[in-house]
From TrEMBL:
It is a multi-pass membrane protein. Keywords: Membrane, Methyltransferase, Transferase, Transmembrane, Transmembrane helix. One of its GO terms (biological process) is methylation. This is S-isoprenylcysteine methyltransferase. It comes from Cyanobium usitatum str. Tous. One of its GO terms (molecular function) is methyltransferase activity. The keyword Cell inner membrane does not apply.
Length: 181
């Protein structure tokens, strides 16, 4: 079985030095997202046991399982996008709209996977810092998805119907699924 990896194509994605300066394709959303994901490498705060009790093992194990599940979902969503993959909220001109597979379950499964991984890390570590990072990711990914959807509606005539029938990131959570709003 031959696996084709998507190419790293910064020009095709619309990445440019000018964009990093003026946010023309949503580059600042990407920077915020990457900074928050990287911050998950920070040690837990408060330190485990700092409050005089050990973090419950079942919660730590549940967190590890959620992290692994999030990674699996991320891989599925990553591969499902194929040539439409871009880290920016603006779609690649001429790329097909993907609405099946992981994208039939929700419109932004990569964001869903990132949030699930963040929740997993927070639970595994019992860290208030990582809980704060999760909440910040909710805000950033919710905002990035809204910007992305404005661009998708302009690029794809069928996007409005897809949007009406498919949850955004997490079904029925107001900031992460705005179909009912």
């Amino acid at each position: 079985m031959l696996i084709h990896l998507p190419k790293f194509q910064p020009e095709r994605w619309g990445l440019s030095w000018g964009g990093w300066l003026d946010n023309r394709h949503g580059e600042w959303w990407l920077l915020a997202q990457l900074a928050l994901i990287a911050a998950h490498l920070l040690p837990p705060w408060p330190a485990p046991g700092a409050w005089g009790y050990a973090w419950p093992l079942p919660l730590a194990l549940a967190g590890a399982i959620l992290l692994l599940l999030g990674l699996v979902l991320a891989v599925q969503a990553f591969w499902g996008l194929g040539s439409s993959l871009t880290p920016l909220p603006d779609p690649i001109p001429g790329a097909p709209l993907v609405t099946s597979g992981a994208y039939g379950r929700c419109r932004h499964p990569l964001y869903q996977a990132v949030l699930l991984c963040s929740l997993g890390v927070s639970l595994a570590l019992g860290s208030l810092l990582h809980l704060a990072l999760l909440l910040a990711l909710v805000a950033v990914l919710g905002g990035k998805a809204r910007r992305e959807e404005r661009a998708l509606e302009l690029a794809y005539p069928d996007y409005a119907a897809y949007r009406a029938r498919t949850p955004a990131i997490i079904p029925r959570l107001p900031w992460l699924d705005w179909r009912a709003l």
